[in-house]
Design brief:
- The structure is a single chain.
- The chain has 561 residues and is an alpha/beta fold.
- 58% of the residues lie in helices and 9% in strands.
- The chain has 25 helices and 10 strands.
- Strand 6, helix 17 and strand 7 form a beta-alpha-beta unit.
- The radius of gyration is 28 Å and the shape is elongated.
- About 1% of the residues have low confidence.
């Protein structure tokens, strides 16, 4: 600050570029002198590249038309060239590389600062292909799991749409949404209300579905598996949500009514069986890899949330895996997107189901990543958007979800707070401090995406919290949808999750003294101008003042001669 003050009197006479440089330096000064230096290991090229990418993410025209521009660029210049460009620009900022070697390097770099990894082999939305290709994806997920399994504070995230085709997941989802909607319609606003056989029969009749008494009896028998409730005529919401699935993994949950409602084709049944086998294989491998540290850190994998027209399938698959594998420790965790209007209702139903099965809570809470797509799709089909109407509504929904979970989850639970919002992070930190004894046996962690909210990540680790970076990696063609979503998020994340550009400017201007070298260059140019007698007396005086300042700065002592 003293250095800045010395220039206050002469600032008006400085060229505009140097006035701007001084202002940037002043803005870059850390408020706390003990502030963490988060980019000390980054190269100058890396800092300037990242700064440029964040600047591009603020251009609405680029962000809104990212998918179209990417498609046109591929047609004009070819996939290889555009893939190379994406890898070395946005890919360097928001992903951990395209192969396991790059990914492993990122893990080791983070570990130096006590930051752990949420690994994500970023493959999703498989429309067509062969079973052999899907099996190759499963092998890649397993390899990812092996990469992070040496530390129980790491975890893996994966998308169900990387292990099956979209057409079969959508078909599953259509039937699961019907079953869920029946449950919510019959329970109403009171999820403690019991569902009766008569109510189910009437609901199906209203929807022009003919059923017999045997169908209804079998449906209720399937729903009350693992329940100690002796009443065969009614079913709680917890029992229903735990056991009623369009494609049951447990044969005991099968019944004639569900088969009538779904009527899957042989091809669909074949693909669903393959999906089940792949998910079971990953769950079994995770259970084998679990390493316990003081009983409260556990190796697990998180099933990522996706679009609303797929989420019913994802939730059903995850609930069934949790019932099978989460008895002794958390192996599988679900994800709840809090920008959805129905998130609190879904969370309450989930917690009721876990209570019936005596399972720990296991989930990641996020705001959401498909906002634009969801709203556009709802508009196209003429339905209300499933997404909160305003940003403030999303914040309220997220914080309410955090409050509900942290006040009601049983011991031994797993909760990951995936947020860049500083207010939400502070709320969770305060609850952890207030209820330290009650939450001691549970794993509570924070996660931010690579390339976003870096300061939050490092500060949480410094304060002793379980802090993670979400590291997506994989072939560029699979990473592109993820990168386009990140560009959109980066366009507004600065005001809430910490301004990445400001952090880079701090590293450049405060820690690396770029402003000093800028001024040094100015003096050199000024001296040359004086020597060639191409400057006014006023300009000469400015150069002399610059010289006096620069020459007494230790960074420039060696250059004085």
């Amino acid at each position: 600050l003293n250095e800045i003050i010395q220039f206050q009197k002469m600032k008006k006479n400085l060229p505009s570029i140097f006035r701007r440089g001084l202002n940037i330096f002043k803005e870059s000064l850390p408020q706390d002198p003990n502030s963490i230096r988060i980019y000390k290991d980054k190269s100058l090229y890396g800092l300037l590249r990242n700064y440029s990418i964040y600047a591009a993410c603020k251009v609405p025209l680029l962000v809104k038309n990212g998918t179209k521009l990417h498609g046109k660029a591929q047609k004009l210049f070819g996939e290889k060239l555009i893939g190379f460009a994406v890898e070395n620009t946005m890919g360097e900022v928001f992903t951990a590389g395209k192969n396991f070697k790059d990914f492993t390097k990122n893990i080791l770099d983070l570990k130096k600062s006590n930051i752990y990894t949420a690994a994500d082999y970023a493959i999703e939305g498989i429309e067509t292909g062969t079973d052999a290709e899907l099996e190759a994806n499963r092998v890649a997920f397993e390899k990812t799991l092996n990469c992070v399994a040496n530390d129980s504070k790491n975890t893996m995230a994966m998308k169900v749409t990387g292990l099956s085709f979209l057409w079969v997941i959508k078909e599953f989802n259509k039937h699961q949404d019907f079953l869920n909607e029946m449950m919510y319609s019959l329970a109403g606003n009171d999820l403690s209300k019991r569902i009766t056989k008569e109510a189910v029969s009437a609901y199906l009749h209203e929807n022009e579905i003919e059923v017999t008494k045997e169908d209804i009896d079998g449906f209720f028998k399937a729903g009350k598996i693992d329940s100690n409730d002796p009443d065969p005529e009614t079913m709680s919401v917890g029992e229903y949500y735990l056991n009623i699935h369009a494609y049951p993994f447990d044969p005991r949950n099968e019944c004639t009514l569900i088969k009538k409602l779904t009527n899957f084709s042989p091809d669909a049944l074949h693909e669903l069986q393959n999906l089940k086998n792949r998910m079971l294989h990953l769950s079994e491998l995770t259970k084998e890899k679990q390493v316990w540290v003081k009983t409260n850190f556990q190796m697990s994998f998180m099933v990522d949330a996706e679009q609303s027209y797929l989420q019913g399938t994802i939730d059903s698959v995850t609930r069934q895996l949790q019932k099978m594998f989460n008895r002794e420790a958390v192996v599988v965790a679900n994800t709840f997107q809090c920008y959805r209007k129905d998130t609190l209702r879904t969370l309450k139903a989930t917690m009721l189901a876990e209570k019936v099965a005596k399972l720990p809570f296991a989930a990641k809470l996020v705001r959401g990543a498909y906002m634009t797509e969801e709203r556009e799709l709802a508009q196209e089909v003429g339905k209300p958007s499933p997404i909160c109407d305003t940003e403030e509504d999303t914040h309220t929904n997220f914080n309410s979800s955090v409050d509900l979970v942290m006040k009601n989850m049983p011991s031994g639970s797993f909760l990951n707070i995936a947020s860049h919002n500083l207010t939400s992070i502070e709320i969770v930190k305060n609850i952890i401090k207030e209820r330290a004894e009650e939450l001691e046996s549970s794993t509570i962690s924070f996660a931010t995406l690579k390339g976003l909210a870096d300061r939050s990540t490092y500060e949480l680790a410094e304060e002793g919290f379980h802090s993670m970076k979400y590291l997506p990696f994989g072939p560029t063609k699979y990473l592109t949808p993820y990168l386009l979503r990140r560009a959109e998020e980066a366009s507004y994340i600065g005001k809430e999750g910490g301004n990445q550009q400001k952090e880079i400017k701090r590293e450049l201007f405060y820690y690396r003294k770029i402003h000093i070298w800028t001024l040094f260059l100015a003096t050199v140019i000024g001296i040359i101008a004086i020597e060639k007698k191409k400057s006014t007396k006023k300009q000469q005086e400015i150069v002399k003042q610059l010289c006096r300042f620069v020459f007494k700065h230790q960074e420039c002592q060696k250059k004085k001669k």
